[in-house]
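Q: Convert this sequence to structure tokens.
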Amino acid sequence: MLGRVLGLLGFALLLVGCGGSATTAQIAATKVGPDLVGPRAMLDMARGASAAGETRLLGKDYSAALGYGHVAPAGDAAKFSPGCTGVEALADSAYAIYTFELPDYDGLAQLTVNWDTPPANGKLWLGLSNFSADCWEWFSPADPGLLDFSALDPYFSESGMCFAVVLVTGDAEAFLAAIQLGEDNETPTANFAADVLSGTVPLTVNFDASASTDPGTGITLYEWDWNGDGTYDQDGGDATASHVFETADTYTVILRVTGSSGSTDTAAVLITAGDAAGWQQIVVPPGTCQSGNIFWDVAGHPAVAYSNGYSLAYRRALDAEGETWGEEQVIETIEGRSFRQRAVGMVNGDPAVAWFRHVDSSSTSELELHFSLAQDAAGGSWGAPVTVAAGLYSSDGTMLGVVDAGGRPALGYDRGETLQYQRANDASGTEWGNAITVVAEGVDASSSLELVADRPAVAYADYSSDPYGYEIRYLIANDAAGTTFAAPAVALARQTGQINWMALADIKGRPGIAYGDMQFVIGSDSGGSSWSEPTGAVTGDGMPFFIDLACIAGQPAIVMAEWTPYNKGDMYYSRALDPLGAVWPAAQLVTSIGWTPPEPPFFAVGGGMVAGRQAVYYGGHAAPITLAVYKE
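A:
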């Protein structure tokens, strides 16, 4: 019970606690919250206040008899209404106590906290009953939805009682949906499709959320927010809904589903209502360059890294739309030594580039792998190129990827028939550790390195078991640094003939893979323990080559280049009608260019967002680097 006010809320972290010491992950064994009676004294008060046998409690199910402050039920949730302004006093904070009675609990030592509206950053404290020391331990978790406390003892009494206190400070309301001991395995998955994604006003769109799932007895409520303003405009038990968009604009439609346990999940789809829409083509300076890689968001503006003769250079747009561009910055110039391939990524918020270059002008096969990191968030200056790996050859390194692996740059590349992963020893990428072999044999050049659920992951083509085709496989690191990787998944898709490229992307915390002629598969979880049947878009009848996959406005989108021999090259774009890529519209033709051998018409393609609009880029033998933005 709040009873005695401690005066200032301890952001006085040195108040008397249970003993122990604080860590960077949590402020443990330190008294910072309400002046509650000791946990053992509270056991007598808690009789009849617990939900015996329940590991999950709704927000409204706090134990009012044990004390609370500035908290009230709000449907199934609890509304926390702190009034701390200026100096934060305990009397103005909001708190509630949740009681678990679980004599035989042997699950994970963690609290899973589900928020409809989370507290402001730094304004949440979670308290646990320490029965061994008869005191309270307070934690300030970095993730407001999860608290790991390493061991079950001493937080349970001999009879299996556990108390958890949720304390919110500041002056902003927060809504707690549920709190659970152990892993939340009752959370539903929201997924819905729109029958059209764009059109002229008035635009009628029909939505179908029947693909949403719940591990319990089913979805109990569907709520629809038509304009993404946080207010749900329609709700009910029907999985289908229809809405007319009367005004020309871009709308983010949000679906929130509630499962049988009370947990919720959301998904979003972007709808463009307006006049006739189309792709606006913007040639990126210097205009004559045919090969480059786009950064979609460098401090709010698109940017590009490209090879221009014997130089590797960088430019950033002067506006968010990518219509005007700044001066060229040269990252590396070596006369007589050409650059074969680049990969770009963001590391600690700064742009980074990795590339292969020939060792000398007399050798057309031997390569080195180089890396450079920008010295600021806009890429205004760049660090000196660092040699990451040497002794590679033209048959190696056709896959290259850059990711931020636990705050340090990391690269993935193929070497012969093996797949290599290499992480820097520091955040700036000036020193690199030894490469580890992620896959030892059977790797084709078609591979992709990306972050999935904040861990490095790789998709690749395996030719070792099928001389007339390939198998697509996936594996993910066991930690954010990529110290070790899980074993490759069983073949999740097969295709005859040759695969020229594939692309991996994080789709709502799951691996999505695009390959072949705009085919798409998605894993059931971040580890890819099971996979969907292939879906995808319908394109032309040319030969597919370069392909890219991105999550654009909450939905997977595929960009693919194909060509007809000795005739023309076409680039297609399709964005799924739902957040998990179950339904795809026919692909849009972005551009069509004529070409003649021997060089292919395209060298690179990609998809992303520019100033809130769908965008793609391409470059090749018959066209300079071009940014195509979809505008109404």
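Residues 39-45 form the longest helix (7 residues).
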